[in-house]
Amino acid sequence: MLKVGEVAPDFVLPDQNGESQVFYKMKGSKGAVLFFYPKDGTPGCTAQSCSFRDNYQELKNLGVEIIGISTNSPDPHKQFATQHSLPFALLSDESGEVRKKYGVKKTLGILPGRATFVVGLDGKIIFSFSSQLEIQKHVDEAVKVIKDYAQK
Known about the structure:
The protein has 152 residues and is of the alpha/beta class. Helices cover 35% and strands 23% of the residues. It contains 6 helices and 7 strands; from the N terminus they run ββαβααβαβαββα. The strands form 2 sheets. Strands 5-4-3-6-7 form a 5-stranded mixed sheet. It has a two-stranded antiparallel ribbon with strand order 1-2. It is globular, with a radius of gyration of 14 Å. It starts with 11 loop residues before the first strand and ends with a helix. The relative contact order is 0.24.
């Protein structure tokens, strides 16, 4: 998995509306949170996405954009985003290519991994965390790091 200080790879993926999105153009004025999650609609992924949703406005005000990525296609992403009022982009990495670029490994060799990266304005990773089970920690730690970073 990519570590703090490494450059976050750029990528182009379709969002929940089927529109191609370029990562570096999506970043806010202070950077971005990328969270990789296994699958739309599962209990853990719903809890994680809704927690990012609940912190969205505060992070947006700090100049950071939130971006969710899974291997789901755009249609399930759209349903998931609508059902849970998710205000951020959900990107479809069906081939797993971006997941590989970021070094997000499968859990037990079968379940797509859960990892969160905070990318600074300079394109370097300032926080990375991977855990399938510590779902809330993904959000809590990312918010803490962003608050510290945004005040610099």
